[in-house]
Design goal:
The strands form five sheets. Strands 1, 2, 3, 4, 5 and 6 form a six-stranded mixed β-sheet that branches. Strands 12-16-14-15-13 form a five-stranded mixed β-sheet. By secondary structure, it is of the alpha+beta class. It is built from 28 helices and 20 strands. The radius of gyration is 34 Å and the shape is extended. A hairpin with a 5-residue loop joins strand 7 and strand 8. Helix 3 packs antiparallel against helix 4, helix 12 packs across helix 13 and helix 19 packs antiparallel against helix 22.
Length: 727
């Protein structure tokens, strides 16, 4: 490892080069809130970083050290502590130079080294795609964020400066970075309440990703400014005069909409630029919270409010801590006016978010609240990432979590629960507790029973109904919206599927070994280890899971175990029967033993099983046409039989020809119902004035039950012909 000598307290260099100018600018800002000893540490980090990056240059031609110092200047404007500033200056040292984390810890302490490591990308990732590499880096960053929030603040400042200085990059790389910024980093800044950084990232990202659209909207904004300045001044003066008349000490300011926000509004609402820019935006800044509500009354008295467009984020802050009153009014000339009313303190916190923790130390209580909200969000993300199958799944969950529009509902005890718009009962249940989500079967909204897929709306009181026997349903993934619910369901199903596959794999392997006169429990442990090594499996459970999922044939594994030399190739004799005893099934095993939809076998039918790689065993009717080709392959099928204890309801399909008379289907339905069965689906195949040919899917208990239903239907005068579909 290279050694870099660093003086204990170096003096500032003479101002000659751009990097030295940036260092002096940084030190000027630091002097406003740090003591000299801490500034000396920052300068020491600068000299270390400059030496480490010596000979490295950016595409613009400037020394590479200019970039980390610029990032440090952004953080200094947020009053970041000196360890955070040092980490910013050194944030690319581990990634781009031979310096190790251990060397950084030795020179500047463990705290700085951990911060730098949290921001550093993973250099060697065994990934199949660039997307996986990016996803793994974001996942690593979030793990580091959970330990120290300064990691993400440094990363956001780093990304902001990269976006500001990527003019010389190739177009494809520029677009890729811009897309990642808009999809991940700008929403993270928003989620952490750092609106100033978020707006800059959105504008720069939009400009890089859609340069032509940015130019067109920007030109339209400039052109419309002059035409509308008079209206803006009129409205602003009218609001200010009304506040003065009410003896309210409030300041009114017009604000220009972000170009990226204008585009998003045009896109989401499918409206033209003219319609978006007709919403004139103003902010009113007050000193006290009470004054905000009084100011709201003043503007509602001045211009008519639009019903349903008032939002009180002071009483119910957003998840990122944002507080403000929002209202839409109909102003002069019939144009809509957007008004935001907040205190000066709320405005400072809305612009800085978690950075307010360092920037406004006098407002400690409020900034601590924002910190607490951010930490709570990160704890939820940590829980999500633990159950995520891979980094891409984690990123998918993260994106769901980063784009919420909130709805507020109540628990039966009156506690307010905040959820994204479109959330369902299942999302609510998982937010209360993972165990509640896993066991939910229904719910009451305002004391009325509702199904689990019911979408929640503001003001609802929700009571979840659970049962000890209940478990998550894969269909829930079709309508849940929160990242936590999605990850918990996936994790449960993954673990359930894994255990089910292990149990089935054990049954299959034991059956094959028994046919060879061997008991699995009597097999020597040394031989098991040898077989696992040959098959490249780490544990017996991993091998059994592979068998249960149909990825490895149980007969071949059994033959290898029984061979004298486990390394020898497995040979099958032409006359050798691979399946001497059938596998007993109930038909309700779940995910890894499924009934084929082509022939819909039911208890009592003669059946055969086929290994479907990755999914387990698919059970077909013995007469199913789809099974003929697969049956020729000796090791891909096995004999299966129904267990005498097989119970439950199984789908069976019948084809019925009946007279096309009024009430015919009703007669069929009532007859089936009288036989203790239900119609799950009806498909009309053909129909004329005389005859209707229909396919009916029935829920039956077994072959005898179906035969009794068919016998009963045949007795009806309207039924001409009835047959069972076996594919």
């Amino acid at each position: 490892m290279p050694e870099i000598a660093v003086k204990p307290a170096p003096a500032l260099p003479a101002i000659e080069h751009p990097e030295e100018k940036l260092l002096h600018q940084l030190c000027e800002i630091l002097r406003s809130y740090l003591d000299q000893e801490q500034i000396n540490d920052v300068v020491r980090a600068y000299h270390f970083g400059a030496a480490a990056h010596s000979g490295q240059f950016r595409r613009s031609g400037e020394a590479y050290i200019c970039h980390p110092v610029s990032v440090a200047i952004t953080l200094a404007s947020m009053h970041m502590d000196h360890h955070g500033i040092m980490a910013a200056i050194l944030h690319d040292v581990i990634e781009d130079t031979p310096i190790s984390k251990e060397q950084l810890a030795e020179q500047f302490g463990v705290e700085v080294a951990e911060l730098v490591d949290g921001v550093t990308k993973l250099s060697k990732i065994d990934s199949r795609s660039r997307a996986e590499a990016q996803a793994e880096n974001v996942r690593k960053m979030f793990l580091a964020m959970a330990q120290d929030l300064r990691v993400i603040v440094v990363k956001l400042a780093d990304r902001l400066h990269n976006m500001q200085t990527m003019g010389n990059m190739p177009v494809d790389k520029k677009r890729r970075i811009a897309k990642e910024t808009l999809e991940i980093y700008a929403p993270i800044a928003n989620r952490l309440g750092m609106n100033d950084v978020r707006h800059q990232l959105e504008s720069l990202g939009f400009k890089a990703l859609y340069p032509n659209r940015y130019t067109a909207i920007n030109n339209a904004v400039k052109k419309s400014r002059g035409n509308r300045k008079e209206i803006i001044d009129t409205i602003q003066n009218a609001i200010q005069n009304r506040l003065n008349e009410s003896n309210l000490d409030g300041a009114v300011a017009g604000r220009e909409k972000n170009i990226a926000s204008i585009y998003q509004k045009m896109l989401s609402k499918r409206i033209s630029f003219t319609d978006v820019f007709d919403v004139y935006a103003f902010r009113i800044y007050c000193h006290q919270v009470d004054d905000c509500y009084r100011a709201l009354g003043c503007v509602h008295n001045l211009y008519k409010p639009v019903p349903g467009r008032f939002k009180d984020y002071i009483a119910l802050p957003k998840a990122n801590g944002y507080q403000s009153l929002h209202t839409i009014l109909i102003g002069p000339y019939g144009v809509p006016i957007e008004i935001q009313i907040r205190t000066h303190e709320m405005h400072r916190l809305s612009e800085s978010g978690i950075a307010a923790h360092w920037l406004y130390k006098s407002d400690n209580d409020k900034s601590e609240t924002i910190q607490a909200r951010a930490n709570e969000w990160l704890r939820d993300l940590l829980e999500i990432q633990k159950s995520a199958g891979d980094s891409l799944e984690f990123i998918d969950n993260l994106k769901v979590d980063l784009f919420p529009q909130e709805v507020f509902v109540f628990t039966p005890k009156g506690k307010i629960i905040k959820l994204p718009r479109g959330a369902t009962i299942v999302d609510f249940a998982y937010l209360v507790h993972t165990d509640v989500g896993n066991a939910c079967i229904s719910a009451r909204i305002d004391k009325k029973l509702v199904p689990l897929q019911t979408k929640l709306e503001n003001g609802m009181t929700v009571e979840v109904i659970t049962a000890t026997w209940a478990r998550p349903n894969p269909l829930w993934l079709n309508y849940v919206t929160t990242a936590k619910a999605r990850s918990c369901i996936r994790a449960y199903l993954k673990n359930f599927n894994q255990q089910e596959a292990i149990n089935l794999g054990r049954r299959l392997l034991e059956k094959e070994l028994q046919s060879l006169g061997i008991q699995l429990e009597n097999v020597d442990n040394t031989r098991i280890i040898q077989v696992l090594q040959v098959l490249k499996k780490h544990s017996m459970n991993e091998l059994l899971e592979d068998i249960g999922l149909g990825n490895r044939m149980p007969f071949l594994v059994a033959k290898r175990i029984s061979q004298t030399d486990v390394n020898a190739a497995v040979k099958l004799d032409d006359n050798e029967s691979t399946h001497k005893t059938p596998l007993i099934i109930k038909g309700t095993e779940g995910i890894v033993v499924s009934l084929a939809k082509c022939c819909r076998p039911i208890p009592g039918d003669s059946i055969i099983g086929f290994f479907n790689p990755g999914k387990g065993i698919v059970v077909h009717h013995h007469e199913c046409r789809n099974s003929n080709e697969v049956r020729k392959k000796q090791t891909t099928w096995l004999d299966v039989e129904w267990s005498p204890e097989a119970s439950g309801e199984f789908p069976a399909e019948i084809r019925i020809e009946l007279l096309n008379q009024r009430g015919s289907l009703a007669t069929i339905a009532s007859t089936i119902s009288s036989m203790d069965s239900n119609i799950e689906n009806i498909t009309v195949v053909s129909q004329d004035d005389r005859v209707s040919v229909d396919l009916l899917t029935l829920a039956v208990k077994d072959r005898v039950h179906l035969a009794n239903i068919i016998r009963k239907l045949k007795k009806l005068s309207i039924v001409l012909k009835i047959t069972r579909i076996k594919a």
